[in-house]
Amino acid sequence: xxxxxxxxxxxxxxxxxxxxxxxxxxxxxxxxxxxxxxxxxxxxxxxxxxxxxxxxxxxxxxxxxxxxxxxxxxxxxxxxxxxxxxxxxxxxxxxxxxxxxxxxxxxxxxxxxxxxxxxxxxxxxxxxxxxxxxxxxxxxxxxxxxxxxxxxxxxxxxxxxxxxxxxxxxxxxxxxxxxxxxxxxxxxxxxxxxxxxxxxxxxxxxxxxxxxxxxxxxxxxxxxxxxxxxxxxxxxxxxxxxxxxxxxxxxxxxxxxxxxxxxxxxxxxxxxxxxxxxxxxxxxxxxxxxxxxxxxxxxxxxxxxxxxxxxxxxxxxxxxxxxxxxxxxxxxxxxxxxxxxxxxxxxxxxxxxxxxxxxxxxxxxxxxxxxxxxxxxxxxxxxxxxxxxxxxxxxxxxxxxxxxxxxxxxxxxxxxxxxxxxxxxxxxxxxxxxxxxxxxxxxxxxxxxxxxxxxxxxxxxxxxxxxxxxxxxxxxxxxxxxxxxxxxxxxxxxxxxxxxxxxxxxxxxxxxxxxxxxxxxxxxxxxxxxxxxxxxxxxxxxxxxxxxxxxxxxxxxxxxxxxxxxxxxxxxxxxxxxxxxxxxxxxxxxxxxxxxxxxxxxxxxxxxxxxxxxxxxxxxxxxxxxxxxxxxxxxxxxxxxxxxxxxxxxxxxxxxxxxxxxxxxxxxxxxxxxxxxxxxxxxxxxxxxxxxxxxxxxxxxxxxxxxxxxxxxxxxxxxxxxxxxxxxxxxxxxxxxxxxxxxxxxxxxxxxxxxxxxxxxxxxxxxxxxxxxxxxxxxxxxxxxxxxxxxxxxxxxxxxxxxxxxxxxxxxxxxxxxxxxxxxxxxxxxxxxxxxxxxxxxxxxxxxxxxxxxxxxxxxxxxxxxxxxxxxxxxxxxxxxxxxxxxxxxxxxxxxxxxxxxxxxxxxxxxxxxxxxxxxxxxxxxxxxxxxxxxxxxxxxxxxxxxxxxxxxxxxxxxxxxxxxxxxxxxxxxxxxxxxxxxxxxxxxxxxxxxxxxxxxxxxxxxxxxxxxxxxxxxxxxxxxxxxxxxxxxxxxxxxxxxxxxxxxxxxxxxxxxxxxxxxxxxxxxxxxxxxxxxxxxxxxxxxxxxxxxxxxxxxxxxxxxxxxxxxxxxxxxxxxxxxxxxxxxxxxxxxxxxxxxxxxxxxxxxxxxxxxxxxxxxxxxxxxxxxxxxxxxxxxxxxxxxxxxxxxxxxxxxxxxxxxxxxxxxxxxxxxxxxxxxxxxxxxxxxxxxxxxxxxxxxxxxxxxxxxxxxxxxxxxxxxxxxxxxxxxxxxxxxxxxxxxxxxxxxxxxxxxxxxxxxxxxxxxxxxxxxxxxxxxxxxxxxxxxxxxxxxxxxxxxxxxxxxxxxxxxxxxxxxxxxxxxxxxxxxxxxxxxxxxxxxxxxxxxxxxxxxxxxxxxxxxxxxxxxxxxxxxxxxxxxxxxxxxxxxxxxxxxxxxxxxxxxxxxxxxxxxxxxxxxxxxxxxxxxxxxxxxxxxxxxxxxxxxxxxxxxxxxxxxxxxxxxxxxxx
Length: 1513
Hints:
With 1513 residues, the chain is mostly beta strands.
């Protein structure tokens, strides 16, 4: 069909037959954006420090139907979020650019992630693909159609209409936000209409307006074919340009950066002083220092390319900066000999003035670089020095770089020749980009996509293994690629390297037969694998000279990247003869195995990447070898025969488990060396050094996790041997001593047979002797859930070594004396031996921490105390003192002792006192004189007590203003005391932990309570806890069942059914059973009544209420619970959030799993489930641990207590989420049947209860069967909404202000009860207006969050509500004191921020007036209080000082201000003009004279606090 006729085309041929000009970016852009390539490429400067201010717009308005497309060239991983695109009606020539695209107003549409926003307000939350998931090389475009639609294009595919009602004149918007740092505009000729209807409405082109192909392609509104998709491993056409300064212009402006003519004695300069070469490289290894001809500018890149290396020396190039002028410098032999003004990178470390300041600066080592690799450096404007290797920023090396520095290169050792790379030189850029490609492709396959790990597909079969034709200089490949030989084997002994033509498959054996040998040389064949592609590899003389991605067996040892990692591994290859075979195989678990004559030699390396090429080095005597076809290695059972105990695969712990991420930390002792990817540690110079070889794990051990090593090498020179243990000291904080037994704090070690704590021997004759172990022995360490340390020798448990370990400990190994080398086996193991078939554990813990025996009061008590209820209650029967009571047993780590106040006597003052004492209550002579009248009078043994809001130690005040004052407690309040695992004492009031009150508490401390003053009777409501057995789960939190009735112990009979006759349902087996028993849940809820939680749950979970309530009693994780009954299709399951703990972040996660519960141990959190599971958490939906989409509706971590969440699987196997009875839509599909509901009480979520079908939690009267007809009728009238009402959408800004308020540690008693406690006045909460306001009232505090206060009772009664209202800006440090007094008081700066700035010279207060000249200091008097009826004036910086605080997960500090809303007594203040300039936009309250903005008062009691206002940046 012919193209539509002309008409409606734009002038100038913009949409005519001739193609329009290529699209460009507007020269006006965000302040961090630099443009290049004629305005077609944009990059955001400082991508590691800044995430926004990267906004760019198109140069011209978009033509209707034209797709404006950009390609993502570079991304970084420092931030969240990524590119944002859209259109705006604002002219970029007149636009004041905001920090991000979402800040655009006045007709702007932006696609961010999966959301579509108009003028900053969300229109859609689930549109199209997630832009944050786009990778480098992907393209994204926007198109404004003639019909006013905005369409999104991703990788050439139309994603549909994002918005409608777009004006005809709009500019394209691209925001280089977050991870996206560089884009390039693509010239796509997509000018056709995209409404898809082909209604003949052309874009104004005539049939003859262009060539025939163009007309045919654009007629009828047809879209051009989509451009080809990026390859699986995309590479940008334009590489990250680290050679350009922040402004985007090349750094070379006047004088080119060259080498200085004055240089080291052996340096020869050429190529216009761009190239430096060391003479006589085979005779001399130093005297190769060369400097730049001028100092480096800020942000200027000094980059060199390695042109030539030699294999003779160790060490290689060194690069850095120096403050010395090359004209006056006496050049040293090496730059590391210079002791002033010099910073050098040598190897992978940083040396300052010749001394090492950072041993492990980056993962790359300069000694491993090859010819063609690039090294660069730049000095930032903030004095930070960065190094770059192949264009990749290695981070900040130092922040103390001098202002004036020259670039330095030391051609040391292997480095012979280098050339300066100038970015504007095309050939230099091409070579540099090739080097970056090689760095980004470790396996060397530049044009071949990387094959994902896992088993190879069955079809088609892999091609036959052959040698690659690219081989060593003295080697040849014959026999159709099956045979490799050195034709002149008697003339040369090396240059005989050959590689396989393709990568090896998993479990594929590469085996060669030695055909010919010569007896002239020493050494013989070497075999291994490498990640380098033979087509691109410059083959070395021997493969052991390759310093990256190579594992080789040579002789009877194994080398990795040229460094020996195993000395005595297997059969010596130097002893092989003609006809012998040698092979190599990489297993699918990443382990590398060698074979000699078909005999496996055991694992040689771990974590070897896939897609490795086999390598054969025909070295020395080996002259010819031929590939032998042996197919795949089957199970490889029994590798190593007698070496199995030494070389078990580190990933073969238990079937189905994931590989352990435990490694040795990069920080270690001076004589220790870490190799094999962090899995092997050895002591260098083992015959001259016997200590200084401490290594530590890279992370803290999890509870029940086994850290196991195998001894691989020993020497018989020294006495003593390996020492192993744990420490609570982080590796970054540890100053490595000679031996770990020198550490005198937080360290537990096994040395020989002695258990040592903090360098002192705790016990001797432990069950094993480390000094008696030999090569091949395995040593394991485990911290159990109960805080015990256990050792394992060759897998056998040696028993408890010590107890009371803190929660986070690191494994420590001291390669001392005879022990030289160890490797991790990776056998992390289960939490205890009961999970291993056939094991007989000493004590098998139950699946969950069942409540232990209830705590009791000791029989010995004060003379006025009477005990009752079998030691569960205590009452003072006379007087106001002599009311001491003690716990019957000492408080264990993590155990909570909690009481409830039952009675008060208002005749007395004072209140309950509580604490810990080391005095056993049973000691001392009997009779009343044995106990003092009060807790504060206890004798000499250490005692820690809390009285009021004061903490005392042995009667002396140790801390003031701690927590909530005990004098305010009343009947029904709960008070508890908990001893932390770190020997700290915590006070718990009504379930809220007040934080540590004291530290260093005695080990065997008893709880002491003093029924003093008003409090006359208490009862115990806690059920014991701690963690006496491994995995028992210490009770680290408040008791979830605050009832005076004790929980039944395992020895007591179960309680009787409820008195109301509720049915128990069918009988079920108990969750605590034999280890070989599996409980099969029933098929539906109909058979068992209401759903209940299963007895197999996380170790920190406590079930109550008949299994319908779950509470997390410790820590922030280990809170997984599952419903024992499968979820029937169409049946709604609901739970209610009962309690939240703001101490933590994140909150409840819920979902379903297709695997029956109880078949395997539960992980620490829901994301650890590797079986079929769908998890909803925060704002995401996760399937088997991977996010698959965003969650509709509010974020789960923002839901308040009382919210009801529900899950339902419909008939189409789709999972629905319900919030307060409202369906949020299907969130996942393909859910199997049956499926089981799981909940993760994570972070803030502390307790949940299953809700019945009507929406009522357990215990609701309306959920029982005795509801009367009137109740039912009322329920029908109320639409059966028995659950809590749907809360409003949580405000993120309100939550942020609440988190800052929590940092001030203000007691809740000062604030009004919920729901009137807080109100947010941010723009989002106040948008849309509200109820009409009285114009006489002051304006709303927009931008602030208000927290209502409980007014302190005053003698004048409640008349202060009619006083004038004003605001008082204050500091965060004065808030608590003002709340304690109930009125305003001046206060100091807050501890949350840096120290306050010194006061400027002048009067102490703006209204105090200048001091007379020559007068002395004024006498102290009451400080005046400055108030204002206008909040904008009271919040000025001199009044409301700004504090900074850091929030987890936010990259930069936040700023905050606080102010009080107060009532002021009439006549107590003086109104006057402002002493500071008010803000221009300040609007005083209606009817107020602007000249009376400042109210000053000095009268005490003139103010009443009404609310606390918080504002956070």
